């Protein structure tokens, strides 16, 4: 299963289902009434909340989400406006429901000062109906996340930290725009896990330029040795707008790994985690034995859970409607405190069928009975290719199937809703929806 590569590959490319797939944008004149109606409904149980911090210290060449450089004088103004948005939303929203996972993402949330991190988390805990066991994640980088900030987050209720590492290979890190050498990154993660006593997860990428199988195995071995609760593994994607694409084209970097090489590296990761006794919680996420890691936010958001969104560029969902918060930083800051700075509202799949399918593929187990008839030929074709195995009631994804999970979701969506493209004005919506596998 792990070592025999198919020839040819079952797909020509890896594709993903974009968050706005199948949505019909609402005319702007309908936004106020629609939003008021949504705010008049209590949240479902096990809802989510996402808070976006849109600042970065530098533009990493592999990242397509960079928007605003770091300015300390702007950060406190931003947190002031963010807290005002949180308070206004709570005052205008029907009480009830529950938020079971809260995620501070970016950008780089840990660029904020210890004081601003603390008061932001305190405001969220005061104004949101968080469950007693709410997963509260702060995403960050090691460059700006020292003991004072870690302790401020924990004091304010954070119980999970997600750190972007990508690789421990120092020469590749330098090319990607990472400041710290790999051994320093490893020591920091080990310290954070031990010092915080909380769930600490790290991101790794495979298929990076210059990352051969030996370096990838070394990355996995290092990550498994640090006392982490969870590890994400993501395939590097050469999206056209990325700075790294131009670097490769000019010869400043070697080519990225091919799909065949990426599949081999994903298989290696699955094998190494299985041998270490780690559980596969999603296509890309693995949890340590006996750890408290639940991966609650990422699993629920991909399965279509309601999500409150706060901050410039954040994307949220209420029932069948999705919405975006103003992505332009100055426009967001200038919005009056008694208004929700909405930049987009759209109606999606009211049945929730696509979200249910996406959640099922993400966990590797698809119930067959609810599948529309037009998808069954695809399911049977994938079974013949070894991407899944069929029982009477379920389709179970194989290792290869989990690698191709994003592409399979996209093809299922195209069978169910072939006219799914959204042609609204382009927005960059931010949330921790890293591509599966």
Write the topology of this structure.
Blueprint: E1 24-25, H1 31-39, E2 47-53, E3 55-56, E4 68-69, H2 72-92, E5 99-106, H3 114-127, E6 130-140, H4 147-155, E7 160-166, H5 170-176, H6 182-196, E8 199-206, H7 213-224, E9 230-235, H8 243-249, H9 259-275, E10 279-280, E11 285-287, H10 296-302, E12 307-310, E13 315-318, E14 321-325, H11 329-334, E15 342-347, H12 353-363, E16 365-367, H13 376-384, E17 388-390, E18 394-397, H14 399-403, H15 405-416
Parallel strand pairs: 2-5, 2-12, 3-4, 5-6, 6-7, 7-8, 8-9
Antiparallel strand pairs: 1-15, 9-11, 10-11, 13-14, 14-15, 16-18, 17-18
Helix pairs in contact: 2-3, 3-4, 7-9, 10-12, 12-15
Reading side by side through the largest sheet, how are the strands ordered?
10-11-9-8-7-6-5-2-12
Oligomerization = single chain
Assign an overall shape: globular
**CATH overall fold name of the largest domain:** pyruvate-formate lyase- activating enzyme
Note the total helix count. Answer: 15
Class per helix and strand makeup: alpha/beta
Helix proportion range: 25-40%
CATH level-1 class of the largest domain: Alpha Beta
Unreliable spans are 419-429, 431-437
Measured on Cα atoms, how large is the radius of gyration?
21 Å
Strand content: 15-25%
What is the mean pLDDT? 90
Spatial separation of the terminal alpha carbons: 17 Å
Account of the 3D structure:
This protein is an alpha/beta fold and 437 residues long. The chain folds into two domains: 24-302, tm_1862 like domain (pyruvate-formate lyase- activating enzyme, Alpha-Beta Horseshoe); 365-416, no CATH class. 37% of the residues lie in helices and 20% in strands. The protein is built from 15 helices and 18 strands. The protein has helices at residues 31-39, 72-92, 114-127, 147-155, 170-176, 182-196, 213-224, 243-249, 259-275, 296-302, 329-334, 353-363, 376-384, 399-403, 405-416, and strands at 24-25, 47-53, 55-56, 68-69, 99-106, 130-140, 160-166, 199-206, 230-235, 279-280, 285-287, 307-310, 315-318, 321-325, 342-347, 365-367, 388-390, 394-397. The chain has a nine-stranded mixed sheet with strand order 10-11-9-8-7-6-5-2-12, with helices on both faces. Strand 13 and strand 14 form a beta hairpin. The longest helix is centred in the first third of the chain and has 21 residues, at 72-92. It starts with 23 loop residues before the first strand and ends in a 21-residue tail after the last helix. It comes from Crenobacter intestini. Keywords: Iron, Iron-sulfur, Metal-binding, Methyltransferase, S-adenosyl-L-methionine, Transferase. Residues 41-271 form the Radical SAM core domain. This is Heme anaerobic degradation radical SAM methyltransferase ChuW/HutW. One of its GO terms (molecular function) is metal ion binding.
């Amino acid at each position: 299963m792990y070592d025999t590569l198919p020839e040819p590959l079952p797909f020509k490319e890896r594709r993903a289902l974009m968050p706005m797939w199948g949505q019909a944008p609402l005319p702007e004149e309908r936004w106020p009434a629609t939003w008021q109606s949504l705010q008049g409904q209590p949240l479902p149980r096990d809802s989510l909340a996402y808070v976006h911090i849109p600042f970065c210290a530098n533009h990493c060449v592999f990242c397509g989400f960079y928007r605003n450089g770091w300015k300390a004088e702007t950060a406190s103004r931003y947190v002031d406006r963010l807290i005002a948005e949180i308070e206004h939303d709570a005052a205008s929203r029907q009480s009830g429901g529950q938020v079971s996972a809260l995620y501070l993402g970016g950008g780089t949330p840990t660029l904020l000062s210890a004081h601003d991190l603390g008061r932001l988390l305190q405001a969220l805990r005061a104004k949101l109906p968080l469950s007693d066991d709410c997963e509260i994640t702060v995403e960050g980088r090691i460059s700006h996340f020292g003991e004072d900030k870690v302790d401020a987050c924990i004091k304010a209720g954070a119980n999970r930290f997600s750190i972007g590492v990508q690789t421990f290979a120092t020469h590749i890190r330098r090319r990607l725009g990472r400041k710290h050498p790999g051994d320093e990154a490893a020591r920091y993660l080990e310290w954070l896990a031990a010092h915080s006593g909380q769930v600490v997860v790290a991101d790794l990428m495979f298929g990076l330029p210059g990352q051969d199988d030996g370096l990838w195995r070394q990355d996995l071995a290092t990550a498994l040795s640090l006392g982490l609760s969870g590890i994400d593994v993501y395939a590097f994607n050469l999206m056209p707008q990325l700075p790294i694409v131009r670097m490769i084209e000019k010869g400043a970097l070697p080519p990225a790994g091919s799909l065949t090489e990426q599949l081999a590296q994903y298989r290696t990761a699955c094998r190494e985690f299985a041998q270490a006794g780690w559980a596969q919680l999603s296509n890309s996420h693995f949890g340590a034995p006996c750890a408290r890691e639940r991966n609650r936010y990422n699993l629920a958001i991909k399965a279509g859970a309601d999500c409150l969104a706060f901050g410039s560029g954040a994307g949220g969902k209420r029932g069948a409607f999705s919405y975006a918060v103003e992505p332009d930083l100055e426009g967001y800051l200038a919005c009056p405190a008694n208004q929700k700075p909405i930049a987009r509202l759209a109606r999606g799949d009211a049945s929730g069928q696509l979200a249910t399918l996406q959640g099922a593929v993400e966990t590797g187990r698809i119930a067959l009975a609810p599948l529309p008839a037009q998808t069954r030929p695809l399911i049977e074709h994938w079974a013949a290719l070894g991407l899944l195995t069929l029982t009477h009631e379920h389709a179970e994804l194989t290792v290869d199937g989990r690698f191709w999970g994003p592409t399979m979701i996209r093809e299922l969506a195209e069978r169910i809703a072939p006219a799914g493209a959204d042609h609204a004005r382009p927005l960059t919506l931010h949330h921790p929806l890293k591509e599966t596998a």
